[in-house]
Amino acid sequence: MGRHLLAWAINIGIAAGLLAAPAMAETLKLAIGQRGNWENSPAQLGQEAGIFRKHGLDLEILYTQGGGETMQAVLSGSVDIGIGVGTPGVMTAFAKGAPVRMIANSTTGANDLYWYVPADSPIKAMADAAGHSIAFSTNGSSTNVTVLGLMKTLGIEATPVATGSPASTFTQVMSGQVNVGWASPPFGIQALQDGKIRVVARGSDVPSLRNQTVRVMITSAPVLEEKKDAIGRFLQAYGETLDWMYADPAAVAAYAKWVEVPPAIAERVRDDFYPKENLRLNRLAGIDAAMTDAVAFKFLAAPLSPDQLATLVRYPTKPTE
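Structure (tokenized):
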């Protein structure tokens, strides 16, 4: 009888424990270009702060060398969502038949991107880079489009070179393999303050990019169909994380710890390079200009039709300028 009572008590305890345990969170796999970029940090910071778990989600995060690699991961089925993918590159893939879908804005404007040279370089401004090599991350990325835009704006001929991440680009620039490097804060801020490098151009130097949605979040059509509810909860949690990142000093401290920079630099990165309005999820600006650039730079053979755009852009709420 004692053994039966013990077994009954154990079973009751196990059942009570199961009832008390939180529901299993659903896993979403992400690919994100450029680890440490403030724009691309909400997934990491929100996960650490428990915001995504509150919405029943666990995130598995893969960091890539840029938008091109991120989109490949999405289209191959390796991940569910890609963050920070160049808008023209997404349009190009869609026009070629890829089942890609835009689900939110990553950033509008290109003020965060900058191009630099070693302090002792004879290149004093981007106009002096004619005949030299200029770095971008990966093919089809926003940095790729920006380099082409800088060349067009300044009327120079140069050699764009895919160099990957800001860290790998810095190595190539400082070793003389590439003449002009690219980066996005916080990378390079300390080198700038120490006088090791000089900025010769910003993404905002390209007029058409100043109010253009240059990077977006994407998924594939099959994943959107299968995981529509989870993606909706992801975007809701992402938006809540953005609100927290611009309102709570604890978010800046968490970001500073993650990227290993002083809190003052972390705050400067946020306030000087990433206005919150530029990261608003339902913002879609300058889409006609983006298509014009994509055609001019031979990413697209022709602008997408309204019907094609309606299929491609699947924001959860109506996109607004």
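The radius of gyration is 22 Å. Residues 118 and 274 are 25 Å apart (CA to CA).
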